[in-house]
Prior knowledge:
By secondary structure, the protein is α+β, with helices and mostly antiparallel strands. It folds into 2 domains: 1-33; 35-71. It has 2 helices and 3 strands, in the order βββαα. Strands 1-2-3 form a 3-stranded antiparallel sheet, with no helix packed on it. Strand 1 and strand 2 (19-22) form a beta hairpin. The longest helix has 18 residues, at 53-70. The chain is flat and about 30 Å long. The two termini are 20 Å apart. The mean pLDDT is 82. The chain binds zinc ion. Zinc ion binds at residues 3, 5-6, 8, 23, 25-26, 28. Zinc ion binds next to loops.
Amino acid sequence: MNCKICATNSPVFFVDKGTFYRCPFCSLIFTDETLSGAKADQHYQQQWDNQQEAFRVQRVDDLLTLISHHRSTPDTCQFL
Ligand SMILES: [Zn+2]
């Protein structure tokens, strides 16, 4: 499965109710499952403490900015 941020081929990291992958380049942990519409809104509102979409979009933008800043030094993003 390719990382959803940097497209690096990523191995399985964890299997529970779904399969999770961990990117060896940027450390993103992600799943191949995709939520859409109302289910996605409900999921992200729960994950982000019921904040509105603008708040969630800003957090994602902050994260992407951080990742892109450190992309040239992959060791900086090794969280585990
Ligand atoms: Zn990645």
